[in-house]
Amino acid sequence: MKNITLFNHRQLWCIAGPLMIANLSTPLLGLVDSAIMGHLESPAYLGAVALGGMIFNFIFWGLGFLRMGTTGVIAQAYGQQDAFEIKAILVRTLLLALLLASLILLSQPVIIALSLQLIDSTQAIKTLTETYFTVRIWSSPATLVNYVLIGVFIGLQKTKASLAIVVSTNLTNIVLDIFLVVILHQGIAGLALATVLSEYTGMITGLFLLRLVLQKNNSPWPGRTAFSFEKIKYQLIINNNLFIRTLCLIFSFSFFISQSAKYGPVILAANTLLMNFQALMAFVLDGFAHATETLVGKTLGQQNQHLLQQTLNTATLWSFSMAVFFSLLYLLLGEHFIHALTDLMPVRSTAATYLPWVILTPVISVWCYLLDGIFIGASWSHHMRNTMAFSTLFCFLPAWYFSQSLGNHGLWFSLVIFMLARGLTMAWIFKKTPLVAR
To answer: The pTM is what?
Structure first.
């Protein structure tokens, strides 16, 4: 860590700071949703939000390559000062986002029918989940366009623009949650409608900011050259690898929620609350990871190995420090957070029982987030795919299978093993593979 300078710290925080604030508003939204549903008359509302969110995790998180795949290639083009290629990447990814959104809307009857068939829960929770789905699905175009815009802004190190998109989306969502659910008593449908309207608010904000950013880019808009076979092939390979990687990640967390539902509505509600703690930590660490993505991509584009090493050292230092902070925070205040989120006594006591697992996860999972940032910046999508698939198939699932006798403790144990395996396998790849630009 000797080579770290004040400039490195300042540079990392200037990029990570706005992203951290943006990311923090996302779990805050989850906490507000849980608090609103948790104060209704039945745990079924909390369970339905968790299961409905699980369905959209498969849909939207599965298409997260629109953000991740864009950031790395944009950052490398930015490092090479290739303004024309930046616009070409933007055109390709926006068109892909709109195409995928159209396919989602056309497929919605099949998606909900299959999802409800796979969900093992009570009929009351299934009915509420279907209501949530049929409203929220209409946010698809805006959500996917926002992924692209955020990826572009991070790659260009315009993280305040990313902050504006995310914060405008989430603050609008929180206000509409309170208005539609608490004041107008629209229930879970109101919660979903708030999400739809807020996503379009974020998209409008992002497009306006994109116009301002591109005014400084004097290169012409690409015509047919934006669709050269080699460029499209390269981006599709990255997107395909990231899609498989993300599906494995979503499967693991969705499997966790699905197994929680089998233990009953109280365990499901408790695990849902505790996963919000995990999300809070994850989104802060992702701020450093996203900053690492763009800094690694840019330095690779510049072929500046000295600055690259300084970036890696700085990101490692701050990521681990923040992980320790969250473990201590949950150790000291975790039960107070649980009591603030729900007044249902069975859910409170159950969540407190499994809180130690949440205290442990930050220092275990921090390496996943840090190495994800490095790999995305380097466009190492194939390594991300392979390590995630290995961790899911040969670590997470076997750990769950052999710990079923431990009940919900076994479920949390398997999740920790999954995070540990991801960090170790990516660290092994990183150690043996030189970082070079494409």
So the answer is: 0.83
Q: Which of 370, 371, 376 is nearest to 430 (CA)?
A: 371
- CB count in 10 Å sphere of residue 433: 12
Of 279, 273, 260, the C-alpha closest to 412 is: 260
For 401-436, write each residue's pLDDT tens digit: 999 999 999 999 999 999 999 999 999 999 998 877
In the block, residue with structure tokens 């809307």: 105
Residue with tokens 């999740």: 415
Calculate the dihedral angle through the C-alpha atoms of 417, 419, 423, 429, rounding to the nearest 10 degrees.
Answer: 80
- Of 254, 329, 241, the closest CA to residue 284 belongs to 329
CB 296 within 8 A of CB 374: yes
Residues 6 or more apart whose Cβ sits within 8 Å of residue 66: 93, 96, 97, 100, 144, 147, 148, 151, 239
Q: Sign of torsion, CA 267 271 272 277?
A: positive
What's the rounded Cα separation, in Å, for the pair 38 and 41?
Answer: 8
Residue 121 phi/psi, 5-degree rounding, is -155, -175
Which residue is associated with the tokens 């807020």? 198
